[in-house]
What does this fold into?
Amino acid sequence: MKIESARKVIGIIRVISPEHKEMKEDDLRVWVELSEPYVSEEKFGKFYYQALAYLTAHKMSLNAPVKKTEGEGSSISTSVKDTMNVASFSEGSTSISFNNPSTSSGGSESSADAEYLLTAYGLQFLDICKRCIMPIAVSGMKRG
It folds into this structure.
């Protein structure tokens, strides 16, 4: 990816993703390069940089460590993805339920898109995908 293109995407990330605003440009560039193969400039057209920025912010959010302190002297470190998957928690008789993104969207999203439902950035990326890419449906047709 050309440096000008990477800087354009990084500029968008700094606007849409305040939690990543302070990251070094070199670190952001690595994340952009990791996300780039998943976004086609030809398919996304004028939304290419925006789609790449949202996908990059989504991937960074899923992998960013979040530190939670539990009591004195002990702590648990998890990722945003882990935190977002827990829907409810109880202590008495221990009960935990988890979000299932593939079903919580009312069935309108495919299981392949379920990961994108875990962050606001992923949802924005899916929205851009729906606007730019025509889905392909295969149905059983009689031959002959």
